[in-house]
């Protein structure tokens, strides 16, 4: 059986990386082989995008993150799915549709750049109080110009993610929007387990192992 491709996306500091780690553990505990990864990837190309947002902007950055996405799909995501794993990826197309637009790139161009990417089986978009999210990102450490800016930037970013959730759904992407509210990280992951199990539990199909499985990560 081929694996599944799940994306967790949303504003800076909302808790994507934390949720990916916790959800990966829960899915592995169900017996699924899990591969955890993130975008930009941990390749030279990806790290250039992650840490280069002061130098690279607009169309250049849009092309850079799209190139990294195709390389990530070719070298990591597709092989893991073919091997039957559940791939859980931190950030993907929704980030490009929000941040590259904020950078002045036309939405149609972002879609065109990404027209050959794989469609995730499920895109989870986390939303939450922008003041809290921005404060958490700042406390953790800022490495991107998109993380800067106070509450106003945070509200704007959240609004864009809400719009992009609708845009992706209209384009046929299965989307699950989850407001983290005041939930603790473990509560967020537990709440997401239900839609993820619904995706993984195809009628009559059991997880490939009866026991807790391994998690690989990039
Ligand atoms: N539900 C939560 N409640 C309280 N703190 C949280 C919660 N989720 C995450 N955090 C904390 O907030 C900080 C940011 O979390 P995390 O790195 O997971 O967010 P992110 O969305 O991946 O951020 P970024 O987009 O900036 O990479 C971390 O210190 C994490 O421990
Ligand atoms: C996937 C993706 C990423 N970016 C930029 C935005 C940030 O500068 C970094 C990611 O930061 P993180 O805290 O390590 O998650 O990459 C982007 O502009 N467009 C994208 O599609």
Automatic annotation (TrEMBL):
It catalyses: dTMP + ATP = dTDP + ADP. The keyword Glycoprotein does not apply. It is an enzyme of class 2 (transferase). SUPFAM superfamilies: P-loop containing nucleoside triphosphate hydrolases. Keywords: ATP-binding, Kinase, Nucleotide biosynthesis, Nucleotide-binding, Transferase. The keyword Nucleus does not apply. Its EC number is 2.7.4.9. It comes from the Bacteria. One of its GO terms (molecular function) is dTMP kinase activity. Pfam families: Thymidylate_kin. Residues 8-149 form the Thymidylate kinase-like domain. Belongs to the thymidylate kinase family. Phosphorylation of dTMP to form dTDP in both de novo and salvage pathways of dTTP synthesis. This is Thymidylate kinase. It comes from Micromonospora antibiotica. The lineage of its organism: Bacteria, Bacillati, Actinomycetota, Actinomycetes, Micromonosporales. The gene is tmk.
């Amino acid at each position: 059986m081929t694996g599944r491709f799940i994306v967790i996306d949303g504003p800076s500091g909302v808790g994507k990386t934390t949720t990916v780690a916790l959800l990966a553990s829960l899915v592995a505990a169900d017996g699924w082989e899990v591969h955890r990864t993130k975008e930009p990837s941990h390749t030279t190309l990806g790290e250039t995008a992650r840490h280069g947002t002061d130098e690279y902007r607009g169309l250049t950055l849009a092309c850079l993150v799209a190139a990294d996405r195709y390389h990530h799909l070719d070298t990591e995501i597709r092989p893991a799915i073919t091997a039957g794993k559940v791939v859980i990826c931190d950030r993907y197309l929704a980030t490009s549709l929000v941040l590259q637009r904020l950078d002045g790139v036309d939405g149609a161009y972002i879609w065109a750049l990404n027209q050959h990417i794989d469609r995730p089986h499920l895109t989870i978009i986390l939303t939450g109080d922008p003041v809290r999210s921005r404060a958490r990102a700042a406390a953790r450490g800022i490495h991107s110009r998109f993380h800067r800016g106070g509450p106003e930037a945070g509200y704007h970013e959240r609004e864009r993610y809400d719009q992009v959730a609708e845009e992706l759904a209209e384009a046929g992407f299965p989307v699950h929007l989850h407001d983290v509210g005041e939930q603790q990280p473990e509560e967020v992951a537990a709440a997401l387990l239900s839609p993820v199990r619904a995706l993984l539990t195809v009628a009559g199909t059991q997880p490939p192992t009866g026991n807790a499985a391994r998690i690989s990560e990039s």
